[in-house]
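stage 2 :: seqdesign
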C-alpha cells in the first residue's frame, strides 16, 4: 500500500519523485500567479485609461481596481468545483485544468480591444476574462499545495509545502520584470499604452505549454491513491466540510485574510498605481513606471527567500509560532511602507516593500503545510481550497479598491496603514485560537484524529 510519508531515508527513486513534485508545483504556481499579478499590475498602470477612460482619472482607477476584486468573488466557485472533483477524481487532473483555464483567459486579455475601439463591450469582456482567472485561481492553490505536502517526508512538510508558495513571489517577480522591460526598453512611453502592455499577456501562452508538460509528468498524491484504494472518497465533500468544520473554515480563512490584505498592497497593483500616478492627475508621488516596477521586482526576491525560510523554520518551531513571528514583523513595518514610497526615491521604495515582505513571507511560507494539516484527508482538497478562497475575499479582494478610496477620502496613505493593521490584528487573534497540528498523520487511516481538536479550548 502507498504511504503518505516515511521516516526512513528516501530512496534515490523517491528523491527523484520529490524533486519532480517540487519543480512541478513551483512551475505551475509561478505561471498561474504570473498571470494573476500581471493583470493586477496592468490594472494599476494602464487599464484605467484603456478600458474605463470615460469615468475620469480618479474614478477610472477605482473601477480598474474593482475588476481586480471581482475575480476574488468567483474564487469560491472555483474552489468548490476544484475541491469537489479534486476529492473525487484526484489532485493532478484538476491542476492541469486550472492551468489551462488561467492561460487561456490571460492570452485573450492580450488581444482584447480597448474602450476606444469597441466601446462598453471592452470592459465587459475584460471583466468576464477576469472572472475566468478567478475561477482558475480558486482551484489552483489547493491542488498544488496538497501535491507538495502529501508527497513530503515526515518532518519536511513545511519545506516542501513552501515550493508552491514561492511560486507566488516568483510570479510577481516575472510579471514586474517583464512589464519593466516593456516600459523601459521595448515599448517606452506611449508605445506601452498602444501595444506594449499586450506582450506580457501573450507570453502566457508559451508558459502554459511548459507548465502542462511538467505537471503531467508528476504522480498523483499518495494520500489520494490510498483514499482511492480504500474507496473512502466522500460523496459530498463540500457538505461534509461545512456541516462538521464550519468554524475551522472561518478561523483559518481569517488567518489568511491578514496576509492577503497586506500582500495585495503590492501584488494587487495598488502601490504601483500610488507611486506612478502623475501629480497632475491627483497623484501623491509621480514616479516613473520602470523604477517602481524594478523596486517591486527586487522586493519579490526578498519575499521569495523569506517565504521559503518560513516553510523550513515551521518544521522546527511549528506552524503557529512561525505565524506569530510574521504578524509581529508585519505590524512593525506596516506604517513604514507608504512614508518610504512618498519620498519618490526608488531605493527607499525597494527598502519599504522589502521590509514589508518579511512579514508577508513569515505568514505565507508555512501556509501550505498549515492548511493541509487542518483538514481530514477525505475532504482536504475542498477544505484547503474553499478556506483559501474565503480568506482571499475577506482580505484581498477589494483591498486595493478600499485603499484607493481611503486615500481619496482622507488625503493620506496613513489611513491605509491603519486599515491593513486592523485586518492583521484580527488574523493574529484567529491564529492564536487554532491549535498547532504540525506533524499530524495525513493518511486516511487517521481520519478520526484529523477530525477533532482543532481549537485551543478543546482538550
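stage 2 :: out
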Amino acid at each position: 500500500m502507498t504511504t503518505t510519508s516515511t521516516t526512513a531515508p528516501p530512496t534515490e527513486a523517491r528523491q527523484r519523485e520529490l524533486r519532480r513534485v517540487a519543480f512541478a508545483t513551483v512551475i505551475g504556481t509561478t505561471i498561474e500567479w504570473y498571470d494573476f499579478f500581471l493583470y493586477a499590475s496592468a490594472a494599476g498602470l494602464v487599464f484605467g485609461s484603456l478600458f474605463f477612460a470615460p469615468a475620469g482619472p480618479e474614478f477610472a482607477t477605482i473601477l480598474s481596481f474593482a475588476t481586480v476584486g471581482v475575480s476574488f468573488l468567483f474564487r469560491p466557485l472555483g474552489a468548490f468545483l476544484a475541491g469537489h472533483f479534486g476529492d473525487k477524481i484526484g489532485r493532478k487532473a484538476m491542476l492541469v485544468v486550472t492551468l489551462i483555464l488561467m492561460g487561456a483567459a490571460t492570452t485573450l486579455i492580450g488581444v482584447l480591444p480597448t474602450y476606444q475601439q469597441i466601446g462598453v463591450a471592452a470592459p465587459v469582456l475584460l471583466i468576464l476574462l477576469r472572472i475566468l482567472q478567478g475561477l482558475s485561481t480558486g482551484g489552483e492553490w489547493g491542488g498544488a499545495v496538497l501535491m507538495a505536502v502529501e508527497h513530503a517526508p515526515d518532518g519536511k512538510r513545511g519545506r516542501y509545502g513552501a515550493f508552491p508558495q514561492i511560486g507566488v513571489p516568483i510570479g510577481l517577480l516575472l510579471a514586474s520584470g517583464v512589464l519593466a522591460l516593456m516600459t523601459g526598453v521595448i515599448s517606452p512611453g506611449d508605445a506601452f499604452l498602444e501595444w506594449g502592455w499586450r506582450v506580457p499577456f501573450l507570453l502566457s501562452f508559451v508558459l502554459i505549454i511548459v507548465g502542462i508538460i511538467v505537471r503531467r509528468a508528476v504522480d498523483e498524491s499518495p494520500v489520494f491513491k490510498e483514499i482511492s484504494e480504500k474507496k473512502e472518497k466522500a460523496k459530498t465533500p463540500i457538505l461534509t466540510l461545512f456541516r462538521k468544520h464550519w468554524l475551522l473554515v472561518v478561523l483559518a480563512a481569517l488567518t489568511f485574510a491578514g496576509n492577503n490584505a497586506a500582500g495585495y498592497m503590492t501584488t494587487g497593483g495598488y502601490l504601483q498605481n500610488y507611486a506612478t500616478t502623475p501629480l497632475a492627475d491627483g497623484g501623491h508621488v509621480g514616479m516613473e513606471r520602470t523604477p517602481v516596477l524594478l523596486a517591486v521586482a527586487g522586493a519579490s526576491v526578498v519575499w521569495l527567500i523569506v517565504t521559503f525560510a518560513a516553510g523550513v523554520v515551521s518544521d522546527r518551531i511549528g506552524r503557529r509560532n512561525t505565524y506569530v513571528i510574521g504578524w509581529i514583523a508585519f505590524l512593525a513595518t506596516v506604517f513604514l511602507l507608504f512614508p518610504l514610497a512618498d519620498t519618490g526615491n526608488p531605493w527607499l521604495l525597494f527598502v519599504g516593500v522589502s521590509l514589508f515582505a518579511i512579514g508577508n513571507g513569515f505568514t505565507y511560507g508555512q501556509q501550505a503545510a498549515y492548511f493541509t494539516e487542518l483538514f481530514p484527508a477525505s475532504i482536504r482538497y475542498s477544505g484547503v481550497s474553499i478556506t483559501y478562497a474565503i480568506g482571499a475575499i475577506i482580505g484581498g479582494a477589494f483591498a486595493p479598491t478600499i485603499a484607493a478610496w481611503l486615500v481619496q477620502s482622507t488625503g493620506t496613505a496613513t489611513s491605509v496603514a491603519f486599515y491593513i493593521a486592523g485586518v492583521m490584528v484580527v488574523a493574529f487573534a484567529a491564529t492564536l485560537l487554532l491549535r498547532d497540528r504540525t506533524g499530524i498523520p495525513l493518511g486516511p487511516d487517521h481520519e478520526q484524529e484529523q477530525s477533532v481538536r482543532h481549537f485551543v479550548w478543546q482538550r
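stage 3 :: structure notes
- The two ends are 33 Å apart (CA to CA).
- The CA atoms of residues 225 and 321 lie 32 Å apart.
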